């Protein structure tokens, strides 16, 4: 199973070479035979998924806020209310695990 394959691109209709190295690369990863030539595939990739189905991980997105304690810009995974202080991760953890009791009147 050595040797290049000549395939026809379904996008531009041009013949392109599916090299033996590429075949091995594809079969190793369980990919099926490509339908498009390399330039077309790269053009599709660079397009950024204009045809729909663009996968973007927005789960890590937060709301940019200023920490009420240290004043540093940070992001919180929720929508902060104007009348409530928001803390950066460090301050939040420090406040939570600080006193150990919860009430700050222990001093
Ligand atoms: Zn093509
Ligand atoms: Zn802070």
- The outline comes out as elongated
Low-confidence stretches: 51-59
Question: Would you count the extended β strands for me?
Answer: 4
The profile of the biggest β sheet is:
2 strands, antiparallel
- Please report which band the strand proportion falls in: under 5%, 5-15%, 15-25%, 25-35%, 35-45% or over 45%: 5-15%
Overall structural domain count: 2
Q: Span from first to last CA?
A: 78 Å
Characterise this structure:
This protein is of the alpha+beta class and 107 residues long. It has two domains: 5-47, no CATH class; 63-98, no CATH class. Helices cover 25% and strands 15% of the residues. It is built from three helices and four strands; from the N terminus they run E-E-H-H-E-E-H. A two-stranded antiparallel ribbon has the order 1-2. Strands 3-4 form a two-stranded antiparallel ribbon. The chain is elongated, with a radius of gyration of 27 Å. The termini are far apart. One zinc ion binds at residues 9, 11-12, 14, 36-37, 39-40.
List keywords for this structure.
binds zinc ion, two-stranded antiparallel sheet, 107 residues, 2 domains, alpha+beta, 3 helices, 4 strands
What is the element layout, followed by pairings?
Blueprint: E1 5-8, E2 15-18, H1 20-28, H2 38-47, E3 63-66, E4 73-76, H3 89-96
Antiparallel strand pairs: 1-2, 3-4
Can you summarize this structure?
Helices cover 25% and strands 15% of the residues.
